[in-house]
Amino acid sequence: MTDAYAHLAPVIAEAGRRQAVWEDELARMRRLHFSTLCVHGGYTPGEAIRNNQGSIVEPVYSSSAQVHSDSDWLEAALAYQIPAWVYSRIANPTVGYLETVLALLEGYRLPFTTNACCTSSGMSAIKAATEPLVANRTDRRQRNIVAMRQCYGGTYQQFDVRYGQERGLEIRWVQDPADLGEWERKINADTCFVFGEFPTNPGLSIFDVHRVAELAHAQGAPLIVDSTLATPALFRPLEHGADVVVQSLSKTLTSSGRGIGGALISRSGMTCNLLPPQVRDNYASWVKLWPYRDAGPALAPESAAHTLDSIKTLRMKADQLSQSALQIARFLESHPAVEHVNYLGLPSHPQHELARRFMRLVDSDENRYGHLLSFTVKGGAVAARKVLDRLTFVFRATDLGRIKSVATIPAISTHQQQGEEARSAAGISPALIRLCVGAEDSQDLEAELDQALGSV
Question: Are strands 262-267 and 244-248 parallel, antiparallel or unpaired?
């Protein structure tokens, strides 16, 4: 507290006492298992009684702002001298409960602290996580970004067009994420950040997060990992050396499909030679209170509530949906109309052994590989369209992560704007169908796919 806020000392002390009570409760929660954290997060009975009239579920605070008891509390809150809800563009209680559970899950059983900032979409989370790292610098050095070429189409556009073409950064695409030598050759002292997906959408590629983190940190660059498809139930990048995790909450974390959202989760003591120590120690919270506040990509409290509801059953869904996806992948691999199947759970996948090392159902020794797969249809693009058009209860949409099965052709949907050359480099052919396996009975899904593939 500076002299400018000395008159607020009583308010700051009282807010600190209140915060300490909740922090003690949160410390007890951190000792519990993953499924318990999914159900409760930081919303304890004490929190419910103190602040929410005893409501057993997190209330939806559909309010643009919060009232303060007097001018001192108002001033302290606006000056960030106390933890408080001020204006929902900056922070909202419902969103705050979601940020707490996300930080707990991504930081599960880790020896350092984690913090989260929720945003209005997965793409806004990537922008919020990376924007401060590519801000204009006065040193006039040619900065670069190192990223996997196989990333999601929207991410490719953000890096290639917004950061590369519009801002003049050099985008160094890693063609083969399994080649550690390629990562090492492209990361240097001018790298703003290193970015990878685990797994990628739709090719299901992964990379050795631990080793790439070491290569990035040797040059003072942070590693940012988008693990939307894995979710923290199957893989937690911070455990393996990543500095920041980004999630599209719109996918499996909100499997109902009733909300759009994103999040960035950071670890204390992140590696980054472009940021001061106080920012590196609490990057997600700093983003929320400063650049995020100014840009305004706030998550709606209603969307946060939908995600909170969905997360409560995350571990069991990740288990069941992964097992169903493996069954469907085996079925497709043996189908005469299918040329190739991409699924990390299949021994035929070139990175299957690496996936076995990294991906497992949390609090178990069982490998699980998520519920997204892709497959190439024999007969090319025309045949793939015929197969997609013959689906009866599988939804044709660009969506994924649903409790309902959803399919699309990435070349004409999610990765359309990349252009044919970039799609080809990323291994996305016009005959590739992406399938996100839902919770339908596996026998029904097999029959559905079999009749659709009968058109080939």
Answer: antiparallel
Token pair belonging to 377: 């249809």
**Which SS3 state, helix, strand or coil, does residue 328 take?**
helix
Q: What is the pLDDT of residue 333?
A: 98
Q: Are residues 267 and 359 in the same domain?
A: no
Give the domain extent around 352: 314-453
Same domain, 326 and 305: no
- What residues contact 111, with CB distance under 8 A and at least 6 apart? none
CB 309 within 8 A of CB 256: yes
Q: What is the pLDDT of residue 455?
A: 76
**What letters, b where the CB count within 10 A reaches 16 and e where it falls short, cover 227-262?**
bbbbbbbbbbbbbbbbbbbbbbbbbbbbbebebbbb
- Note whether 158 and 126 are within 8 A (CB): yes
CA-CA distances (angstroms) from residue 35 to 30, 105, 109, 381? 12, 9, 13, 42
The H-or-E segment that residue 377 falls in is strand 372-377
Residue 416: predicted pLDDT: 59
Compute the residue count for the chain: 456
Asked if 357 and 447 sit in the same domain, the reply is: yes
CB 147 within 8 A of CB 172: yes
Q: Are residues 427 and 286 part of one domain?
A: no
Residue 248: strand pairing partners: 262
Q: What is the DSSP string of 21-90?
A: HHHHHHHHHTTS-HHHHHHHTT--HHHHHHHSTT-SS------SB---SSHHHHHHHHTTSS----BTTT
Q: Please tell me the pTM assigned to this model.
A: 0.95
Report d(CA 241, CA 267) in Å as an integer: 10
- Please state whether beta strands 144-148 and 191-197 pair in parallel, antiparallel, or not at all (unpaired): parallel
> Across-strand partners of 267?
114
Amino acid at 436: C
Given a cut of 50, the residues of the chain with pLDDT beneath it are: none
The amino acid present at 375, given as its one-letter code, is F
- Cis amide linkage into residue 232, ω under 30° from 0: no
